[in-house]
Amino acid sequence: MILEVNHRTHYAYTEAIFPEPSHLYLHPAVRPHFHVRDHQIQVYPKPSGLSPRMDVENNTFYQMWFNGTLTSLTIDTSLRVDIVPYNPFDFLLETEPRTPHQEAVVPYLQVTEKLTSAMLAWSMSILEVTSDNLIFVTMMAREIGEHWEHVLRYEADLLPIDLCFTSKKGSCRDLSWMMIQVLRHHQIPARFVSGYAFNPELEGHELHGWVEVWLKGAGWVAVDPSAGLLATEYYIPLAASYHPANTLPVQGAFRGQASAKLTTSVDIGLVAGNSPD
């Protein structure tokens, strides 16, 4: 199967601005369930430089810079990937990792928001059912998917996890961040993932956020608390980090007094075609 993504990001400025160098996190990450057939980024007006780079967490990004002023900026991303069905449970957990990973996962164990007594009681109620990390993770994701409302929020900030917990609703990034903080409290490394998720039954698509959990032997395992399930082949990650702010698709600033209006559109669908040999 071929999954096609067309993603437009447009900024309109109230007056001319001078953009500082920006980072575009719009390149698909490496995962075993898909192969990138074609990927293109077109920027209007044409930048003075657009160079693929790699960040400290091994995410591919494009460094973009201009030598003049702008009154608008459009970034068009087109992507085609060959996806293959795969079983998200196709792995074995191991008592000890093959190689030491303790230092590597330290950033993904940082608890930056205090869990309330109600949140602790909720997570402990799941632990009373199982002490197995995989079952604990899948049960927590199912709980969030069933009992929390997934809403669209276009604000750049994250909801405090206690507000997300008590209100029983949040955006995909809010629900994911809440789950990450709870997992880290229980010493399970977790990170935030931003990318594209395709649902054949829905029309209209947005960038999506989900969670990857480090499990011994299996490595990073993707789980979507918004859906309450482990991620399938329809999930195409763009960036993964210990904090969601590091996965924003466009990261940068500008000099000037203008205000900016951001509009985005994402179209995802299956298209006909032959898979490569």
Question: Describe it for me?
Answer:
This protein has 277 residues and is of the alpha+beta class. The protein has helices at residues 117-127, 133-147, 161-167, 172-185; strands at 2-19, 22-24, 34-44, 49-54, 60-65, 70-83, 149-150, 169-170, 190-197, 207-215, 219-224, 229-230, 235-241, 250-251, 254-255, 260-271. Strands 1, 3, 6, 15 and 16 form a five-stranded antiparallel sheet that branches. Strands 12-11-10-9-13 form a five-stranded antiparallel sheet, covered by helices on one side. It has a four-stranded antiparallel sheet with strand order 4-5-2-14, with no helix packed on it. Strand 4 (49-54) and strand 5 (60-65) form a beta hairpin. Helix 3 (161-167) packs across helix 4 (172-185). The chain is globular. 32% of the residues are buried.
- Approximate strand percentage: 35-45%
Order of helices and strands: EEEEEEHHEHEHEEEEEEEE
Number of helices: 4
Q: Report, as a whole number of angstroms, the end-to-end distance.
A: 13 Å
User: What is the arithmetic mean of pLDDT?
Assistant: 91
In terms of per-residue confidence, which ranges show pLDDT below 50 for 5 or more consecutive residues?
A: none
Number of E strands: 16
The Rg value, from CA coordinates, equals 20 Å
Coarse shape: globular
